[in-house]
Amino acid sequence: METRTVAGPDTVLATAEFRSGDYRPATARTGLEECLDRYCPWVSKPAVLLVASELITNAVRHTCGDWTMQVTVRPAQLVVEVTDGSQTTPTPREPDLTGAAGGMGMHIISKLTTWHETEVSPAGTGKTIRAVWQEVPQPTIGR
User: Fold this and answer.
1) How far apart are CA 82 and CA 117, in angstroms?
2) pLDDT score at 127
3) pTM of whole model > 0.85?
């Protein structure tokens, strides 16, 4: 895992990038977990790891070729992006509750993130699915 740290308000605190040629999905999740432990104690680690797993699994299952996971941490914000070579955008579909045909990934991502989006490359080289978590300030009681 490569990380880069930049100090300063509203700037990137850390980035990490995982490429399918260098990392298996499980290894990328482990690197993400290390990044969360160090920079994002405010996020639900199980939720972020599940979303990252879904994004990587979708890239492996529904596209051919390589994928890249980019993790960016800013003050009060975590962004996990998975890029693959397919132009096809994910479409939420009716989940198969038996687990045989899937269909739960985008529903899980919608429920566990602050927001998410898909950006198709204008150059026709693929797409990036971006999952974002924003830290919600906790109210101060009794002041």
Assistant:
1) 11
2) 95
3) no
